[in-house]
């Protein structure tokens, strides 16, 4: 079967790989000139944290997300499985209690246990939650690895090509273009995110740390070579070209409050992106004509793309049906 | 019915729209609350042509009246500018005016608040000022042209309930004709019932519903509590006393000794 995947973000590349691995003849079209420009995936945090997401997402996100860790480990061996730490400053401990009540699969750590697990945070917090089964990855390295693997499987990737399902009648198409698909998916909206890359080689955090706060929760994700990703804001906006001074201040202050060493970090990059979301913030695979639209991954791109790609490939190649990611079941999902 | 700047509303529960897990959950909560008014905070950067439009059209589809607010503004100028943007975006003269004075408690800066209220009332806005329960500040706000007062129960998002019930009673007694909407700090439905029992006209809830495990269910509970509190107020509660007062008359009971 010949399939055209539109969009080279994490959803598009995951779909292309699932299809190619199942023997389909796949091409990927991307309207931007390079991988780095293809949507918001390049600016993602790369946390694979399905159990933390239970805090504000229905169980479906956890169920789909839990599939992704093994998927990434298999296709991107640099995926790190060191768990996630969740902390709150003394005055916000109520946030930690609430987080614990809504999530699952964690251990509670006291000050000593936290220091033993994550020496850089020794003495800084009296309590923490440790989600041992979670992981993280460097989204940019992961996207590059997927693209390389696609090349090995003979998938052609063409950049700078404007395409849409409407322009490709009669072809099997998977559209993974995020907010650009709004013409076909009218109920999509944009949620802006802002992130920083900070260089701080002298700090050696081993795993993502979420710092809870009633207004400004942030997370810090370690990457290779002493680079840290700090993110991410959630702003109801379709425009994602600039960061506001306030967001920048807030992200930096939160990193500094997590560890004062961040005061000396180098600001390597400031990134923004707009994530596409449906009104319930849950992903969908929607069939319109010959095309499947895989969209609405919201802030869960790397967490959910594998599970969606798997389902999209089976829908397209075997005609299988997955009620949990198609529209008919959305009410049940919300009440689940 | 409650009159707010000449508009009659049946529901005495106003709902904030921030920090819900998703717009769909927000919509369910608004329906469950039976609220007729929702507050929407405007971020300066969302004032552009297309940004935020999708979220606002979701709000409009709820079919409720929007009370834009200047949440997070720290100065008179910022609050006034935000009010101007809100009027353009939502096409309403209503504005919930917040001027924050202190970051730890998000306590209103009552000096900036009265100043901003004076400016905005002069420009034809119908101002809903978020204030403390301070009587003198309330006087100044009324003098500035405000026709509604929104005293806090406790710091925003703290869920602590009515920290100064006496202060709210005093406000009620002092301004019998001004709608009082308790804004901020309520955590559970009994707090809302207490505010209505004390004669406050309405309550505004955001975090207590948005951050609840099941926001729509919590919105239902708040709606019931607001109904109960208001009904109790209209029914005329008894006075508290220091000693027991038998509910069965003593006179005429048989002497069984």
Describe the overall structure:
- The complex is a heterodimer of chains A (336) and B (257).
- By secondary structure, chain A is α/β, with parallel strands linked by helices.
- Chain A folds into two domains: 2-49 and 138-186 and 279-330, 3-Layer(bba) Sandwich (FAD/NAD(P)-binding domain); 84-132 and 190-277, D-Amino Acid Oxidase, Chain A, domain 2 (2-Layer Sandwich), CATH 3.30.9.
- Helix content of chain A is 29%, strand content 26%.
- In chain A, the strands form three sheets. In chain A, strands 4, 5, 6, 10, 11, 12, 13, 14 and 15 form a nine-stranded mixed beta sheet that branches. In chain A, strands 8-2-1-9-17-16 form a six-stranded mixed beta sheet, covered by helices on one side. Chain A has a two-stranded antiparallel ribbon with strand order 3-7.
- In chain A, helix 1 (10-21) packs parallel to helix 5, helix 1 (10-21) packs parallel to helix 7 and helix 2 crosses helix 7.
- Chain A is globular.
- Mean pLDDT of chain A is 91; it is low at 331-336.
- Chain B is of the alpha/beta class and 257 residues long.
- Chain B is globular.
- The N and C termini of chain B lie far apart (55 Å).
- In chain B, strand 7 (100-102) and strand 8 form a beta hairpin.
- In chain B, strands 5-4-3-12-11 form a five-stranded parallel beta sheet.
- Chain B has helices at residues 23-33, 53-60, 76-90, 110-122, 135-144, 165-174, 189-197, 207-210, 215-235; strands spanning 2-4, 7-9, 13-16, 37-41, 65-69, 94-97, 100-102, 107-108, 126-131, 150-151, 181-183, 202-205.
- The longest helix of chain B has 21 residues, at 215-235.
- Classes of the chains: A alpha/beta (336), B alpha/beta (257).
